[in-house]
Amino acid sequence: AQSVTQLGSHVSVSEGALVLLRCNYSSSVPPYLFWYVQYPNQGLQLLLKYTSAATLVKGINDFEAEFKKSETSFHLTKPSAHMSDAAEYFCAVGTGANNLFFGTGTRLTVIP
Amino acid sequence: GAVVSQHPSRVICKSGTSVKIECRSLDFQATTMFWYRQFPKKSLMLMATSNEGSKATYEQGVEKDKFLINHASLTLSTLTVTSAHPEDSSFYICSAPGQGEGGTQYFGPGTRLLVL
User: Fold this and answer.
1) pLDDT at A92
2) Interface probe with A: pick from B11, B104, B112, most Cβ of A within 10 Å
3) Closest chain A residue to B97 measured between Cα atoms?
């Protein structure tokens, strides 16, 4: 079985500051891990994914995430927040072509 | 990347009527599509898996007679909310897995349903 826990339903950062969104997963098999972003009233856009290749994954808009098996974590980071990064972020785990299991989401607010 | 569309993007209907939502994979074929429901400020809840050429697989607690799913072709799945009630108001999102892309799913833009 797979599950995802996102710590912190809301995160606020100042523009230009580091963004850190936390995600821990549980999976009985080697997981595929994803971060998606959702802007208001829109669908989900893939930011990045881990599929058993490099443990440090780089995505769009300077986001990256590191897969740490020992910590069962896949935290999302960005060195410098931009106002346009304000959105809802979802971590998800899957095992292939099946459906994804989503975390409860983290709303990122960027303060000017 | 692959593109998934949904139609309509927004629909308002009266209680008791039925509403059909279409999900299309525009530049790839999808033998499987997924339908999710998202409540305000909540995560996505998988409702059902749509399978081309066979019956949909519903998650526990989802009424199959209320949420009819038809996967008519390799690029089209439809979700029909029958006899809609105000509690069915929600944001419905579909997705389709990319081919050979390590579990990546591509999501439609969602359909906002409001039942009066």
Assistant:
1) 93
2) B104
3) A97
Q: Check B112 against A103: CB less than 8 A apart.
A: no
Contact of B59 with B47, CB cutoff 8 Å:
yes
- What per-residue confidence (pLDDT) applies to A96? 64
All residues at 6 or more sequence positions from A19 whose CB lies less than 8 Å from its CB, including other chains: A11, A13, A63, A76, A77, A78, A81, A85, A108
Helix H or strand E segment including B44: strand B44-51
Band (pLDDT 50/70/90 cuts) for residue B37 is very high
SS (H, E, C) chain A: CEEEECCCCEEEEECCCCEEECCEEEECCCCEEEEEEECCCCCEEEEEEECCCCCEEECHHHCEEEEEHHHCEEEEEECCCCHHHCEEEEEEEECCCCCCEECCCEEEEEEC
